[in-house]
Write a structure and sequence with these properties.
The chain is α+β, with helices and mostly antiparallel strands. The chain contains 2 helices and 4 strands; from the N terminus they run βαββαβ.
Length: about 100
Amino acid sequence: MTRSAPRRGPRWYVIEVRPAALGWDDEERPADRVRAVVEARRGDGRPVRLVRAVTIPEDGSCLLVVEAPSRSAAAELARDADLDIRGLGETVRAGGARQPEG
C-alpha cells in the first residue's frame, strides 16, 4: 500500500468556548473577537482564518472552526482573543481521515 505525502499548510481546528455567564453581548461574541485578532494579524506572517462559528443554544457555548498552520497557532489565536476555552482539537476532513501532523 502506498502512503500519500503528509498534508502541508493550514489545518482546521475547533475551539470550544465556555458560555458567558449572562449570555454574549456585542463586544463579547467569540467570533467577533477572533475576527478582530485575525484582522490585526494580516500581513504579519501568521496566517489564521475564522472558518465558521456556531452557538450551541442548549448550553450557550460556542464552537469556532479556525484555519491555522498548527495547533499552537490556533491556541495562540484563542489566547489573543481572550477566549475562555473548554477545548481545542483538530478537525476530521471529509472521508474520515485525520489530517496528519507535520
